[in-house]
Amino acid sequence: MTASATAPAPAAQAASTRKVRPLSRRRLLVHAAQLGTLIFIVGGWQLFTSWKIVDPFFFGQPSGIVAKLWFWINHGTAYGSLGSQVWVTMKEALLGFLFGTLSGIIVGVLLGQVRFLSDVLSPYIKAANALPRIVLGSIFVVWLGLGTSSKVLLAAVLVFFVVFFNAFQGVREVDDQLIANVRILGASRWDVVRNVVIPSALTWIIASLHVAFGFSIIGAIVGEFLGAQQGLGLIISTAQNNFDPDGVFAAMVLIAVIALTAEWLIGLLERSLLSWRPQTAAQARAV
Amino acid sequence: MRKTSETRVTATATTASLRSCLTLIFAIDLFEQNAHSALYAEIERNSDARPLPRLASASVRSNNTIELAGVTKRFVTPAGSSYTALRDVTLTVEPGQFCAVVGPTGCGKSTTLTMVAGLDSPSEGTVRVGGRPVDGIADGTSFMFQADALLPWKTVLGNVAMGPLFHGVPRKTALTQAREWLRVVGLSGFEDHHPHQLSGGMRKRVALAAALINEPSVLLMDEPFGALDVQTKAIMSNELLTLWDQSRPSVIFVTHDLEEAIALADRVIVLTAGPGTVKAIYDIDLPRPRGSVQEIRFGKRFGELHEQVWQSLRDEVTRAYARTGGAPGAPGAPASSALPAITEGARS
């Protein structure tokens, strides 16, 4: 009673605080420290390599990386324009993420609901999860060729297991009383899944999406490493063969930008899908 | 998250009238300050003026006797042994009767309800509702749980509308019905809130509306107001009686609060300490309508009934306590070895 009565208070408090102080002192300090860290690392790297304490031939140089990026932007890469390379990799990662997530949710919910299926399949799933699935990339290239489909499949396989385990666990954690309640209210089995099981498991599923997107990028890049005609993975692999660390790092910077953008988008999705959740005191303070 | 919640608040503010906004703030204020008397008066006044959306047909009502005959329920413990929760329980709840079941902790009160609801089946004996054996969840039965069974991801309106929607009522009609029921339980203006934004008492109102919207002929309640503070509990009890009186479902109301049981029920059944079996049945002859649940307990007849039932219940409570407390002492001398000083002090 006490806890529930005070529940709406933090949200209201936080809202009023934000109106008064749009950007708090503490937040400003955090941003300044973040910028400082970047300058320290990149600056240190630049200085150490200029002073030849560290050999730029092996470690690259920030100025070299920027120059490389600038060159790619203006003159394109060996395999076509930079934009098309980024687009190919992004497309592979996104499609892999999409297919992997969907199949992970469907199979996870299904196995979570049907005890018999999960009992039958659990040893195989555990075995498949323990294998280094990245090796499957070689087989996929053989099967599907050098195009995007082999990378999409590899990314999807990596994503699938992450999402599947979370969806499965999420379904198993559903409060029995909530299910009993809707069943008494007249819910069919499908009503129970749609109204209780999936929303309840969504907290778990969404938590896995952050990790899952990382895996989908790994899948796409490694797939391109193993054999491709286009993409950032191919650029990295070519740079490696040419003893060009600047090229490797430049491609990594691009991947980091893609990953951060995706992370931000998933964060937005999370907030809109889980908006029903009560705000915790920690969240109210942090924002 | 912040942004969305803020937008929602703004939207509510613009669409709702000024009056409902004020009511909202006022109500939250009252709940927080625990200014129960003012709220109490408000709700008392409102509940008389709020008719039910529509009454269920009489044919449904006439067929809702609940009968348990020789019901025994055993569970298998994690250790593999068998545990008897209920033994040979026989009881009848007449159509439209309000029946309270009291008993010590762990005597199988809740198990009885789950079997009447069809969530579980007895190991021996039969459970009948309206003359038909219960074999699974039946239409016409509603259940109110001790803890909140509201879906936290649905709005208040969505939670209440679930019953009709599951029964194939068109969405628009279901939402209209849900709004009506929210008005009945005094929660107009809270349709778009999520359960976590409400106080404990308000959540109970939502649960009550969600249970009653299906127009149950059998209403099962498992310590529904157990988690509420005393004042809110009294208000909710009054609300419940008013609503029950308008549609008269058969009720089994499980509680550990004897005063609550006597104030609400036509019949009080005392169960023994586990394994539970019917120890005594008391018919409560207090006239209806009972009026305020808080005031009825000062009456002379209430005192007599309370005395009688308590005599019967006390032994069971002490026995159950001795068992859970781990004291080897005989029933009637609870935990005498564990707390010798206190027992001695009380005797001298």
Layout of helices and strands:
The complex is a heterodimer of chains A (287) and B (348).
Chain A: H1 2-6, H2 8-20, H3 25-50, H4 56-59, H5 62-75, H6 82-113, H7 115-130, H8 136-144, H9 148-172, H10 176-184, H11 189-226, H12 232-241, H13 245-273, H14 281-286
Chain B: H1 2-15, H2 18-33, H3 36-49, H4 58-61, E1 66-76, E2 82-93, E3 98-102, H5 109-117, E4 124-129, E5 132-133, E6 141-144, H6 156-166, H7 171-184, H8 200-212, E7 218-222, H9 230-247, E8 250-255, H10 258-264, E9 267-271, E10 278-283, H11 293-296, H12 300-325, H13 340-347
Helix pairs in contact in B: 3-9, 6-7, 6-8, 7-8, 8-9, 10-12
Task: Write out key terms for the chains shown.
heterodimer; A: 287 residues; mainly alpha; MetI-like fold; 14 helices; 82% helix; disordered N terminus; B: 348 residues; alpha/beta; Rossmann fold; six-stranded mixed beta sheet; four-stranded antiparallel beta sheet; 13 helices; 18% strand; globular
